Every structure is written in C-alpha cells, then in structure tokens.
Amino acid sequence: MAVVLLSFVVATLLLALPIFIALSFSSFFGVGVLTNTPPVVIAQRMFAGIDNFTLMAIPYFILASELMRAAGIADRLINLAKVLVGWLPGGLAAAGVIACVFFGAISGSSPATLAAVGSIMIVAMVRAGYSEYFSIGLMTTAGSLGIIIPPSITLIVYGAVTGTSIGQLFAAGFLPGFMIAGMLVVYCMIMGWWNGIPLDQRPTLKEIGIAFKRAALGLGLPVLLLGGIYSGIFTPTESAAVAVAYGLIVGVFVYRTIDMQSLVRILRDSGLISATLLLIVAGASALSWVLASQGLITKISSDILNLSDEPWIILLLFNLVLIVSGFFLDAVSAVIVLAPLMVNVTSAIGIDPVHFGIITLVNVELGMMTPPVGLNLFVACAITGKPLHRIAIAIVPSALIVLIGLVLVTYIPWISMTIPNMLYD
Asked: How confident is the model at residue 3 (pLDDT cuts 50, 70, 90)?
C-alpha cells in the first residue's frame, strides 16, 4: 500500500496539479480505494492537522515579515552589511549574504528573505561588475538561509509534527545557519578577487556607528523574540504575535512608511500566503495520517532498520530521500509527510530529534532551490524576469556549497547541538 500510495502522490505531482490538490487527492484515494475507512475522515484530519496552537505562529510570522519588509528594514540591513564587509574582496556579494542572514532572522521565511534582499542586491551586484548569473545564483541560495536561521516557520512545523521542542530547534539553527552563510561569504571573496571586482573604501567608525543606529530596530526584533523565548517570558507562538506588534509599531509610528492603504494590502497578502501554506499543511497532515493509521510508518521504519542499524548509513539514506523529495514537494509538505517516519527511525538509533531537525531543514533548503517546485526559483524568476531553467543553472555553484554544509551538519552533531545543550542542559 505504501508503494501504491506514494506512487500516486508522485504521479499527481508530475501532472502539475497544485501541491494541496495532489496531497489531498492522494489521501482520499488511499482511504477510499485501498481501505474501508469513510472518506469523510480525510476532511476531519485536514482540520485536525491545522487545529494546532503551535501552528498559529505561522500566519503571525508571515504578517510580521511583510510588515518589516514594508517598513523598509531590508534597505537598512543591506546598508549595515555593506558597511561591515563591503570593503573586502567580493564585499558587495558578501554583504548580500549577510543581509539575508539579518532579514532571515526577522522574517523566518526564505521566499520573503529573497524577495526583500535579492530585489535590491542583484541589481547592485550587476552594476558593480559581478556576473548577472553569479548574482542571481548567490542571492537565490543566500535567501534560502531564512529557512534555517531562527525564528524559522519550517522549524515550527517540524517541531509541531514531531513533538520536538521549538525552543531547542531555534537554538540549534544558529551555528548551522551561520556556518553555511560563512561558507558563502568565503565563496564571494574568492570570486570577487578572481574577477578583479574593485574594492570599496574602508568605512570609518562613525559610518559604522550610523549604520548600526539606522538598523537597530531591525536587529532588535530577533533579540527580543529569542530573548523572550529563552527567558520564559513567552512561548514561540506568542513570540510571533509580539513580532507583529513590533512590526506595526516600527512601520506605522517610528519609520512611518506604512499607511492605512499599505496596511490593508499587507493584511491581504499575508492572509493569502498564510492560507496557501496552511492548506498545504492540511493536505500533508491528512496524507501523513493515512500512512500512520495503516501502520505504514511503523512497517517502513522496521524495514529500514532491518537494512542497517548504522547511523551514518541511515542518515545518508534519509539525506538522499529528502533531497529527491525536494524535486516534488515544497518544504512544509516534505517535513509533514517524511519527518514523523524518519524521526521514528533516527530516535531508535540514538540520533537526537533536534539534530535531525536541522539536517531535515538543510535538506529542504536545497529543495527550495531545485526545480520543478523550488519556491525560491519562482521568486527569483519574478524579481529578475529570467526563465526558470537559467536560474536553476545559475544556483549550481552556491547550491554545492550548501550541500557541503549539509554533509558537515549531518556527521558533526556538535554544530547543531552545542547551543541547545548550553541553554537546556
């Protein structure tokens, strides 16, 4: 049944059906054709899949990211990044990567990060002498860092479906995210030196201070959220509501860049994005329930452990499965459908669910950049006007760097577990 059901999912995706329709239709097919369960149960499981207090953080974080983007935070963060590293070889490109780290820590979303930072930095890099496709590939990859660096929407989904502490997951995302960003910065410096890109003038201490002052409110949001979570003042879900309030105050009363007309548009766009994402969560939750209710997750877990109980082999196998799934499923769907099965296996061989959560997130980060459903590719198409296949080729060098980061995160648990162990042990 597992083979038939998963084959049906792949077939519906290959027919270019929307992901929600593909997942939902597969769930109805699974219970209506392969079992005697009434199909109405699928509708009930869809509702149950999104009737989760933890998932309430998703629409709030989406709204907060839209508010901060409309407030003009991205411009200030980009200027700060330019001041910090713009005078180094490849400095402008490196500044784009660092700006993605900053904005990712505010938005928790890869597409939002790419849209906010990439739309500015790609044009600036091309004007500075960088290759157009290097610029597009780098920013598409760097934009995907928003999925790892806390507060991450996909980490919230992983924590909700596996029962893993979201606070620990947020803590675990820091070092891997910064490590991959650092590798991309080194890549930028090498390419800048190799292509003879002119260096910017070294900033004065006064200019650095001014840049920090202008970006202070943007940098203050992740400090407020994570400080509140780890001090116990509010939960991760409540922190999302705090982020919305913060974004409103900054955009409406401090920077005064958001008027009533803009606010209505932001609420509409955030509602559409949230509804789309939660529909996918509902469909994926129903499919995951079908697999679990028929005992397929337990059976598949047992079969995998019968193949090998060596952790490095299991992790290699799961990495391959997650990478391939990225060609067909978006990040949230892949996490909801595959994470419960995989965590069941990895926990049995002694791999911490927090560590495996970060492994999963780096894998789905790669999936954000792979056709045909890589969401960041479509965002890059929208902001550059370039065809999908050209952008897919452009991201290959920087995606290989993320792949190296995946290998390091997978087989060196220290990278993911150091900060959670410090905060929670």
From this structure: low
